[in-house]
Write a structure and sequence with these properties.
single chain, about 300 residues, alpha/beta, 6-stranded parallel sheet, 14 helices, 6 strands, about 50% helix, about 10% strand
């Protein structure tokens, strides 16, 4: 539970998804000097909106992170004057980060414990597919819902994790100004510095420790983990999401496989023919499997949506 505040200002919210630097952003926004200078108090934190209700409306609080919020849920819960920052991240990097969290850094209790035993038996493509399956049902629709607010800043500011990581001061300046946090530049800078990756991990950004909750923090890490197969699998499970969020210009970003197949247009020996046939068979089976998984998850999401709105 969060604190209470003597301020009558509208509350502010941090809305995001797992592995989007949520604790980092929260700790900057709720740094003791930021709260002291602004007169606000820390509200509810770590709320999973898939299983919990929206925090009760009380003035003068900074709530968050709230996970899996959709645009429609924000519009339904928002009280007059309230503002939110929505932190998004390249979903492919979320998938990779979630693999390492399951395998190493999260507490191995409950579902995470069961997943840890499973994921350690898989090769890298298998780990990524498991991570995708875990995230597709919970994140796809809520994340996609923010596409129409990426360029609009009326009551919420959508900002990329990549911008925060690459330009901390300028990006947090935008966040503080949008949330109308009345603090000095010195206070904001101190809050940013106290919660930098270097301070929290003892390493420079990009210096990886796979066992740490602060593993690497490097945008674009997915490129060293995804292959052609997992790229196609991602697009099947998260159709059009990267384009909608502005991370890719076309859904054919995963089209390297098609180019590889095209390179076999002149099959001259048995080995080439066998390789081509194996590739086509593998992709056909994967496509059928992923299509079935997608359909099942969409049906479940639609059923839950109908139940919620009854």
């Amino acid at each position: 539970m969060g604190s209470t505040s003597s301020s009558d200002e509208p509350s502010r919210f941090l809305l995001t998804f797992p592995k989007c630097g949520s604790q980092w952003v929260r700790d900057v926004l709720t740094h003791s000097d930021v709260l002291s200078d602004s007169g606000l108090a820390a509200g509810e934190s770590g709320v999973d909106l898939l299983v919990n209700r929206w925090p009760s409306s009380s003035p003068g609080l900074i709530h968050g992170p709230l996970y899996f919020a959709s645009l429609s849920s924000w519009e339904a819960a928002r009280q007059p004057g309230e503002r939110a920052v929505v932190v998004l991240r390249d979903p492919r990097d979320i998938v990779v980060s979630w693999v390492y969290s399951i395998e190493y850094s999260h507490q191995a209790t409950g579902r995470i414990g069961a997943l840890r035993s499973l994921i350690r038996e898989l090769d890298l493509p298998g780990k990524l597919l498991l991570s995708m399956a875990e995230l597709a049902g919970s994140s796809y629709h809520p994340m996609k819902s923010w596409r129409d607010r990426i360029s609009s800043t009326s009551d919420c500011l959508v900002i990329r994790y990549e911008s925060l990581a690459q330009s901390e001061t300028d990006s947090f300046q935008d966040v503080f100004e949008f949330l109308q946090l009345d603090v000095s530049q010195e206070t904001m800078s101190e809050a940013i510095a106290a919660n930098s990756f270097e301070m929290r991990s003892g390493r420079t950004r990009g210096d990886e420790d796979v066992t740490s909750h602060f593993r690497s923090a490097s945008p674009g890490d997915w490129m060293s983990h995804f292959d052609e197969y997992t790229s196609l699998a991602f697009e099947a499970l998260f159709p059009g999401l990267l384009v909608e969020l502005g991370y890719e210009s076309t859904s054919s970003w995963s089209g390297d496989v098609e180019l590889d197949i095209a390179s076999y247009n002149e099959v001259t020996n048995l080995d080439d023919a066998v390789t081509l046939a194996t590739t086509i068979t593998r992709l056909t089976e994967a496509n059928l499997m992923l299509t079935n998984v997608c359909q099942q998850r969409l049906e479940l999401i639609e059923e839950l949506s109908r139940t919620i709105h009854q």
